Amino acid sequence: MDNVNTLMEGVRSSRPAWADWFPVQERILDDVKTESDAVVLVDVAGGRGHDLEAFRAHFPKEEAN
Questions:
Q1: pLDDT in tens, 29-60
Q2: Which residues are CB-contacts of 45 (< 8 A; sequence separation ≥ 6)?
Q3: CA-CA distances (angstroms) from residue 27 to 17, 32, 41, 44?
Q4: Cβ–Cβ contacts within 10 Å for residue 23, how many?
Q5: What CA–CA distance (Å, rounded) separates 59 from 43?
Q6: pLDDT per position as a tens digit, 55-64
């Protein structure tokens, strides 16, 4: 698993994070549900959470509400 995670990080390392080019605000956050059990985003790919970290950096909790 460590080898797969390292590969995924290496493949993505020279590319911009998806939150840099995808219209996150318009496609996801503008219509987000605010119930405590609502799901906004699920990361199903390999790696060590770099895509979720990029999302959190671009859209911290205070701005997403």
A1: 888 887 888 888 777 766 677 788 888 888 88
A2: 8, 51
A3: 16, 9, 12, 19
A4: 10
A5: 16
A6: 888 888 744 4
Its pTM stands at 0.60
Rounded CA-CA distance 36/13 in Å is 33
Residue pointed to by tokens 């199903």: 44
The span from the CA of 64 to the CA of 28, in Å, is 10
Length of the chain: 65
Q: What Cα–Cα distance (Å) separates residue 24 from each residue in 2, 42, 43, 54, 63?
A: 29, 14, 15, 12, 12
